[in-house]
Amino acid sequence: MVSEDQAASLRKEVEDAFAEDFQGVSYVGSKVREIEKRHGQWVIESAGLYQALRMKSFRELLRNPKLSHKLASLLGDEVMCWRSQFFDKFPGASGTIWHQNATFRETGKYAKLQPTKDTDPAVIQLTAWVALSESTIENGCLRFLPGSFSDARMDFLYSFIQDNKLFYISLLPFSFRYFFDVFKVVLFGRIFTKSIFVFLTAAKLLGEDFFDKFKVKDMEMKPGECIVFSSLNMHASYPNICSSNSRFSFVGRCTANHVRVAPGGKDVYSTAEGMVEYELPEVGSFQVYGKDSFGYNKILKD
Ligand SMILES: O=C(O)CCC(=O)C(=O)O
């Protein structure tokens, strides 16, 4: 979508901004920031959450017609980005497990995306994932189960299991040897650690043949290339097994303007010391395509 040089300069812009701690602006709140700093875990993923709001070049990247027209062809003619992230998968970083996240509930109690019109769950949200470095099997490229957007059961099970902690206990017979590890994860684990257990349970409930019908596609990409995928598309990524090569990407989470974003204006962040509530950015979204005729969300005026 953009040249390798442009991708390199976008990456540098983020790294420079991170080196200056995004000028002290944190969108996940000062408490999360303070805890994560204390644990040495204030990384680009956390510090950079929502920062594209303040970075014109990233807003323009999503508005690039090569991308925004594609988003509009699936989401309709009013498209906004409600959340942005940077992923710096450094050497030795682990992979991301298979997941779906149509309504982006994550660790929160409520879905963050609430469509006000009848909407196919596969297009409640689309993710634009832009490679800002080479993305290879060795450094942790994305993996997809093509066609899996038509089956939302894993997403449903994730929420269901999160609400029913007893399901974790049902894993104990399979992991008796790891009793204390499981115990620790259930009580203190971060969402992605917990997800491994949730995933094992969900996979078991769905049956062995759930995965057989899909063929995994590994998505190696060059810097500047972009992929758009439905959040119902099961995806994961490899660990980074390189010795020096980090895998860097920008992600814009896009939805239609008729979708209400986190109506309560709050979210929770899974920190090293447990869940911490924070206020979502006052101006939370920016327009990527068309004009907002609904007025449900606070949209950046730029
Ligand atoms: O970049 C990754 O490794 C994971 C990305 C992902 O899970 C997502 O964008 O939803």
**Helical segment count:** 10
Counting structural domains, the number is 1
Strand content: 15-25%
Strand order of the largest sheet: 7-4-9-1-13
Question: What is the helical fraction, as a range of percent?
Answer: 25-40%
CATH class: Mainly Beta
Describe this structure as you would to a colleague.
With 302 residues, the chain is α+β, with helices and mostly antiparallel strands. The protein has one domain: q2cbj1_9rhob like domain (Jelly Rolls), CATH 2.60.120.620. Helix content is 31%, strand content 22%. The protein contains 10 helices and 13 strands. Strands 7-4-9-1-13 form a 5-stranded antiparallel β-sheet. A hairpin with a 2-residue loop joins strand 11 (266-271) and strand 12. The protein is globular. The mean pLDDT is 85. Residues 87, 89, 96, 127, 129, 142, 235, 237, 249, 251 line the site of 2-oxoglutaric acid.
Which tags fit this structure?
globular, binds 2-oxoglutaric acid, four-stranded antiparallel sheet, Jelly Rolls, single chain, alpha+beta, 302 residues
